[in-house]
Structures
1.
Amino acid sequence: MVCRWRLAEAQNWRCAYCSAVMTSEPGGPTEATRDHVVPRSVGGDDSSQNLVAACFSCNVVKADLDAWGFARARMRAVRARRWLPGQWPSLETCVRIRSDVQEDELDYLLNAWRARRGVPSPTKGDRRAMREQAERLGIVFHEPAASEGAEC
């Protein structure tokens, strides 16, 4: 098993998701932690290829989300100055990031379904219409619950 210190050293003590400088001191938002790129809950393992060093705040909010989707949503939050590196996010930001990742996954699923059936993808599809269509197709879309954001 790869320890968080070695991962942090390999990444020059920078978070894989927000590039914040991480510390070894426990309890703060910049504490260095091990994160699974593919979460163990969906079949990821503890191999070195599946582990990165992440600051505690990114690791807590990411939880079981797709790493690449989370990283994109995290960078959007940094650019919009909603969640700066090395800080705790607001509850609203936690919920928004989880929702953004789910929206990205929904877009991917719908576009993949359309491509398999030869249906053209929407140019700037209306989210509500896409959700309704997803439900008709049997794709379940979960809105983030208030309790999910409370974990942040």
2.
Amino acid sequence: MTGQQLMITAGAIPSALDAGTDHSAGGTGGVMDFFECHALREKHELEKWGDLDRCPTAMESLEYWRGNEYEERRLFVARLGQETVGTCSVTLPLRENTSTAGIMVDVAAAFRRRGWGRRLLEHAEAVAADSAALPWMRTVSCPPGRWRTRPG
């Protein structure tokens, strides 16, 4: 790992895709954070599958991240300086199985194998624990042939 400080912040979900270009959650809704997260997802899907057939569009992602009456969805962006390292998310059921949480971590290819994914996972687990939920599902996906297992 480098000497830089990894900053993990809540990703604001914009009110609309054309809500502006500011990084803040106020006023414009942080649409640039949202687009960075979506672009990382698209890169991951292209790397893994070779196409975007399984990847939601930006509008579909926006609708998903708004949540609904059954699930609260929290999105986080990790950065080293101005570079986006990855994202993590926590899905919290609101009506059934409320003591559980779904966690997803995605690390940009250039930052993998440096411990940043572990830091994102720890952050997401802490968010789930603060909500009195236990992670029930962790999603980890790697391109074919790149999965490494640890001995023992």
3.
Amino acid sequence: MSPFILLESAPSSMLGNIIVVSGAFLILLVLIKKYAWGMVTAMLDARAKKINDDIDSAENARLKAEAFATQRETELAGSRDEAIKIINNAKDTAESNKAKVVAEAAEEARRAKQRANEEIEQSKKEAISGIKGNVADISVKIAEKLIGETLDASAQSELINQYLEKLGE
């Protein structure tokens, strides 16, 4: 065979190869389309759906977390306000209790002073009464010695009152 024959047959065999390979490729595409394409697209659709669901789920979780954080901040602010109210109420109660205790102590001191003054007055009256009795006895004895006679009760009482009036002046 001549070298020209090989060259002449080569382009046609190359064209034949291209036609055979192209035909095989087309048959392969038809078979893939008929038997596998549905499963491949279903698998890709399922994966895309899962990814979209995951993105939606993540977005919902983020929104819930933001709502929860906002709610916590609101509750915390409410708790702070409530704590401030409780502290202010405690301060007000303490101030009113302080005023009440001070007033009660002042009243107790006033009553104690009044009782002491009453006891002093009572002691003074008892001392004066005791002194009157002693003075009366002494004055009766002095009068008996001076006058030389015994005084009756009314005369003795009048003499004592006169003596005490002189002492009071």
